[in-house]
Write a structure and sequence with these properties.
alpha+beta; 6-stranded mixed β-sheet; 4-stranded antiparallel β-sheet; 17 strands; 27% helix; Ig-like_fold; Ig-like_dom_sf; Ig-like domain-containing protein; transmembrane; IgSF_BTN/MOG
């Protein structure tokens, strides 16, 4: 009779050694995404009725290690850890082709572990036909750094000035670098604060104090080694942005003056048109008065000459 409990089989796996070479892969996934833990044994077809697939946490100190279990073609949740309930799926359309990969939904920091896939075939006797190890590493991109520094002042050369560089919503903890682009020299930060947030991501704030020079070009780098991302902010670029804002302000002032002049011209034209209209109306009324005075005496003369 076949043992039904997942626990019995998991405890007995060290006895069953008909195993192919063990695979180990690293999967990097972003926080909140779905991660696919790969476990593929290509080149062979399997009957689900004679197949058992176990995904477990590869750590003997874990009190609950069962991530997902498939027995005789059906999911078995009897010993699945609560943490993974309703968060795991096998790729059913690929199982018969030897793809036992597991889809882990909405990953978080607590899922960052080493997992083990064990595939058993139950024909005349139970044997392990495939195993794989997968290390799940999580990551999140940091936001574009915000670099703030002193306002340029020709008299500030030689004085100590402070720069600050901040970035948010990244994972894991970043590396922060300061570079003086004038001579490509690396500078040591004066202070570095890394804050862990409730959602598991980090924010970073680094400050740098240096002696001011007339040609300062300071750059701050935020490195996420796991994602191989390195984003930066440049002090010179910040000044250029301020310069572009000034240019935009000047353009707005010019356009405002142009609109004001156009408005004045429009008012002058309107007044001229009104003046022309008033003159025309006045002349038209005057001509009517003249014609009336000419007609009135003629009518009086006719009345005098007419017989009584």
């Amino acid at each position: 009779m076949e043992p039904r409990g997942c626990g019995f089989l998991l405890l007995s796996l060290h006895i069953l050694r008909a195993v192919t070479a063990l695979e180990e892969k690293i999967v990097i996934s972003k926080l909140g995404d779905n991660a696919t833990l790969s476990c593929i044994y290509p080149g062979k077809e399997f009957s689900l009725n004679n197949l058992r697939v176990y995904w477990q946490i590869d750590d003997v100190q874990e009190q609950c290690s069962v991530v997902h279990a498939l027995i005789s073609g059906q999911d078995n949740e009897s010993e699945q850890c609560i943490h993974f309930k309703n968060r795991t799926q096998l790729l059913w359309d690929r199982l018969g082709d030897g793809d036992f990969s597991l889809l882990l939904l909405n990953v978080s920091q607590s899922d960052e572990r080493k997992y083990k896939c064990v595939v058993l075939q139950t024909n005349e006797y139970t044997k392990v036909v495939h195993q794989a190890q997968v290390v799940l590493s999580l990551a999140a991109s940091y936001s574009q750094p915000i670099l703030s520094g002193p306002v340029r002042n020709s008299n500030s050369a030689g004085e100590e000035v402070t720069f600050s560089c901040s970035s948010d919503n990244g994972y894991p903890e970043p590396n922060v670098y300061w570079i003086n682009r004038t001579d490509n020299r690396r500078l040591l930060p004066s202070e570095l604060n890394i804050t862990l947030h409730v959602d598991g991501t980090y924010s970073v704030l680094s400050t740098l104090k240096v002696k001011a020079t007339s040609d300062m070009q300071i750059e701050c780098f935020i490195e996420n080694k796991r994602l191989q991302e390195n984003i930066s902010a440049n002090y010179t670029q910040e000044k250029q942005k301020n310069g572009s804002n000034t240019e935009s302000h000047k353009d707005l002032e010019k356009s405002g003056r142009g609109a004001q002049a156009a408005g004045i011209i429009s008012i002058v034209i309107l007044i001229a048109l009104l003046a022309v209209l008033i003159c025309w109306l006045w002349k038209h009324r005057s001509s009517k008065l003249v014609s009336y005075t000419d007609v009135q005496p003629n009518e009086d003369n006719r009345k005098l000459n007419s017989p009584v």
